[in-house]
Here is the input.
Amino acid sequence: MALITCRGASFGYEGNTAVAGLNFEVQSGNYLCVVGENGSGKSTLIKGLLRLKAPIEGSVLMGDGLKPTEIGYLPQQTAAQKDFPASAYEVVLSGRLSARGVLPFYTCKDKAAANESIERLGITLLRRRCYRELSGGQQQRVLLARALCATQKVLLLDEPVAGLDPVVTQELYRLIAEINHNTGITIIMVSHDIHSAVKYASHILHLKNRQAFFGTTTGYLNSPVSKAFMGGERND
Amino acid sequence: MINTLIEMWQQPFIIRAVVVGVLVSLCAALLGVSLVLKRYAMIGDGLSHVGFGSLAVAMAFNLAPLEVSIPVVVLAAFLLLRISESSKIKGDAAIALISASALALGVMLISITTGLNTDVCNFMFGSLLTLSKDDLALSVVLSAVVLTVFVLAYNKIFAVTFDESFAKATGVKTSMYNMLIAFLTAITIVLGMRMMGAMLISALIIFPALTSMRLCKTFRTVTLCSALVSVGCFFIGANASFIGIQVRQGHGFITRSLPTGATIVVVNLIAFLIFWLINAIKGRVRK
Here is the structure.
């Protein structure tokens, strides 16, 4: 069975449908990019996948023993976070909360997992640094380490490169691809950056308040949807 | 001066006041970190005005002030939280609306019934020395509850404060923890209102957190440091207010005691300025 399956799912707010007719499967180890314009239903879909929003119609099924709280989520940064006094280590460790359940304090195992995830992302030197003093790219790495702490199976990234400069953006994309390649963790990424999406992703889901395309990246590049979308962007 | 202090410290009502003061300062400082970082600092201010309104009602009907205020302020806390979470009404405007209304109702009720007497002044600007033995017992029990819950929920509170969406996604019941923070804040505010006064209690929540954020870099150190700063400022402020200052009158000097709440706030302000200055100097040196 697939890791995540959407069957005829629709999501919306207070009676208004934001995105409808979703039929797709994410297999373990896939790298799926969700693309589409602003307001095309990407954020709503993320809430649906995280089970923060129940589908209006259809269903979202989790396979391979995946629990909704086992999704490593990288949300968009909020303004309050940018000047938050916390060490990188404290932020990463908070990724273990889902494993903690009702117990109030972290165990040695949690701390070891946090340190492992810090090493994996090459931010050992930043461990004790204050989050608000890090650069945008470093902050994203810390948040990615936290997301990795929360999951063994799937990372859900909401526009992880928003606001980063081109060099740092490429580094982060490479890092995400590396995680996907080396550990087999499934990646689901929402992105505006269609050109990087087709460069790194194995599958593409294109939303236009409905499912405009779902399939492999090669299939997408040959589809009329992509030609309109990517061509349009080049003309800008 | 030393003699005055020693004499003071032998009075049971001073000991009572100090015990309650230390506990309330601790609670306020711990919760303050989360409130300031979540941009909820104004909720503390709003709640203190609601607290004043409910104290006025309690006084008008000759009821026990704390027992009436606590449920009213807790209810108001949940209401304010709901309002600031909903996008339809802007949170800060709604808080100002509720706090001004509560204050106005309180003042009206007081004018009709008792008039602006010393008791009312004490509620507005605080007095350490009016605590009864029952007040002490209730304050100790409630602050112990606030401190225990805070320590047990510390990691969850960090997660909810730093990143609500992430916490929610990993299965933390964020609205429950927001309510918990609001609930604990409401209790702390009512307990602290006797000492600091309704007009000044929100300073006890906001100042220590802001002060320690000048210098501390991690959530844990910010929390610990604001607890220390808060208790320290309380001690200095309370003692200064007991001793009072010498003012010239006629040909001699007389000692005037200082208002407790206001003195504690001023000490907090000085601490804030010192921390800010150290941070500024550190920044200079590094450059």
User: Anything to note?
Assistant: The radius of gyration of chain B is 20 Å.
